[in-house]
Design a protein that fits this description.
With about 190 residues, the protein is of the alpha+beta class. It has a domain of about 120 residues: Jelly Rolls, CATH 2.60.120. The strands form two sheets. Strands 1-8-3-6 form a four-stranded antiparallel beta sheet. The radius of gyration is 17 Å and the shape is globular. The chain starts with 14 loop residues before the first helix and ends with a helix.
């Protein structure tokens, strides 16, 4: 299966360019519980999950783990600021399941951007889509109730609800595990 054309995205890339971009990725395996990068280090790769699930998280001021993002089959994940600006990451990334991911470095990606305008355009539009998704998450945290946030996650990403531990889902939603249990019990 072509990595790029199977991504969960509205943005399409012509098959010829999708093949070129797909062959630039490497396949990597991460055992469940692997810490792929740590806060304070650079995120040097962009990940597209083939099988399994990854999550990005950080620690709040009280030392609690807060899930920032989940990625499951054919979704992409990276720390945009760390990856593109070569800065230290504020996040950690771990595999929640045995995971196979396609990865690419910034140097390799930039080489393709320099060589192929269509791939550069795809990268720009894809990054914009990721930013919109992050903006939606922030807006949900600011303006929606915990129950509404749970229902949105259930509607848009039911596999996350089925596969991720409840404590990690609760932290992603910005609530306690007890609150999540009450919301689930209502359904």
């Amino acid at each position: 299966m072509d990595i790029i054309s199977s991504l969960e995205t509205k943005i399409k890339l012509a098959p010829h360019y999708a093949d070129i971009l797909s062959t630039a990725f490497e396949e990597e395996f991460f055992r469940k519980g692997t810490l792929i990068w740590r806060q304070g280090n650079r995120c040097k790769r962009l990940f597209i999950v083939k099988t399994g699930m990854l999550r990005v998280f950080y620690y709040d001021s009280k030392g609690r783990e807060i899930t920032h993002w989940f990625a499951r089959e054919y979704t992409a994940l990276t720390d945009l600021n760390s990856f593109f600006h070569k800065k230290r990451s504020d996040y950690n990334m771990e595999s929640l399941e045995d995971t196979v991911a396609y990865t690419i470095t910034l140097d390799r990606l930039n080489s393709l951007f320099d060589k192929y305008h269509e791939i550069e355009r795809f990268g720009r539009l894809f990054t914009m889509e990721m930013m919109v998704q992050l903006t939606e998450k922030v807006k949900d945290l600011q303006f929606r109730s915990a129950e509404e946030r749970y229902n949105i996650l259930l509607e848009k990403h039911p596999s996350v609800i089925q596969r991720a531990p409840l404590g990690k889902i609760a932290s992603y939603l910005g609530i306690t595990q007890q609150s999540l249990s009450r919301i689930r019990a209502k359904r």
